[in-house]
User: Fold this.
Amino acid sequence: DEDEALLSGDYEDYFDEEDQAGLPVLAIIGRPNVGKSTLVNRILERRAAVVQDTPGVTRDRVSYPAQWAGRDFTLVDTGGWEMDVKGLDKSVADQAEIAIEMADAVIFVVDATVGATHTDEQLVRVLRRSNKPILLAANKVDSANQEADAAYLWSLGLGEPFPVSALHGRGAGDLLDKAMEILPLESSVAQSMPKDGPRRIALIGRPNVGKSSLLNQLAGSDRVVVNDLAGTTRDPVDELIEIDGRPWWFVDTAGVRRKMHRTTGADYYASIRTQAALEKAELALVLLDASEKMTEQDVRVVQAAIDAGRAVVIINNKWDLVDEDRREQLKFEHERELKQIQWASRINLSAKTGWHTNRIVRAMDEALAGWETRISTGRLNSFLGELVAAKPHPVRGGKQPRILFATQASTKPPRFVIFTTGFLDPAYRRFIERRLREDFGFHGTPIQISVRVRE
Ligand code: GDP
Ligand code: GDP
Assistant:
């Protein structure tokens, strides 16, 4: 993506997703030709940002960093999205739904000179279902005597229409002021992670698997004196540890270091602790005691990391105690208990002796890269096209669900939304996931796939 942006010369257009992390997202929605792209240009105040697209060329980048009244937010533009000519209404509604899902608030644009059309009404239905804050923009009100046109749009039932001329800028400031009122200060859709600095790792596992031993082994003599690091704000329970010359935040280590007594409720406490650490982390290092039979609690910890949507590396600790027999059992236990996480790296090591602890960094890098992978909408849809052509969904009860369109709604972890004409078999979904992993290498990260059925 970066290369592409640099090659085409639109540097400004390219932005680092990290910088926008956690900022509220405002989406501009509306049927084709109402002036969405024009409004986006107006808001971004740089015409070059949104290139007039060649028809038929999919523009994949839909989010832009934007500012208004001293506030930073992310603007999602649906103006250049390809429309399916056959089912125009439907594809407009589908794509709007994706954009709405990615948004914290929506500006719904209607062409006041045309009035509410059938497609507009379809979109209102989608908007209503979303329960997101909505602002109704009555566009193409280029002069005061056109304001009466805007008033007709009360009929859409979305409250007061705000007259605006995206082309000339008339009313645009007022519209944005209003938009800032409905836009939450913090995003509930974007990841609110610290923008930069060392990666955040949760070291988790049931009691006695060797978490504090590993922490000590990794910290060794290379413990970073945090006060030396200018400008780092730090939670006292987090620890900065340098491994191979690179610093990593190990979050919530107080919980790891504080020895837990095996009393009633320890399990519960451990799971709360795990949850808290996962909240703050980007990656989970899940420790298992390879010398003992895998327990239910081990599986629960692994599942918690997956459910939290974190990158995962699995560690088989205490390898110094593992003999040939145990090794065989372990293989069997992994196959049976951890089949939901075949995609994660496994490292056999000994926290006690330090054997193979040097393999951790590479696995973490790989998992984090997978976690942040983004596939462009164009690539994703051609991939799915080929996949379906090679292996169509089986016919069920005389029906065969078709895949209409898909998009990667987010990263960290990768999340996909697939629009179909019917429910997909679980087996077919798994097939899609498997192929996604084969083709795009989402190693070490969970993938979330949601299917939206259009009737
Ligand atoms: P989109 O498909 O919703 O992104 O619409 P565009 O932004 O591409 O605009 C469609 C057409 O409407 C273009 O010819 C624009 O110049 C025109 N347009 C957009 N906003 C206004 C406006 O405020 N006033 C007038 N008169 N025309 C506008
Ligand atoms: P925690 O409760 O997960 O923090 O586990 P600890 O780090 O306190 O380790 C529990 C016990 O396992 C301690 O007695 C450690 O010495 C031991 N232990 C940890 N790692 C290893 C290892 O790699 N090999 C062996 N043999 N023992 C280990």
User: Anything to note?
Assistant: The radius of gyration is 25 Å. Confidence is low (pLDDT under 50) at residues 1-18, 47-61, 221-235.
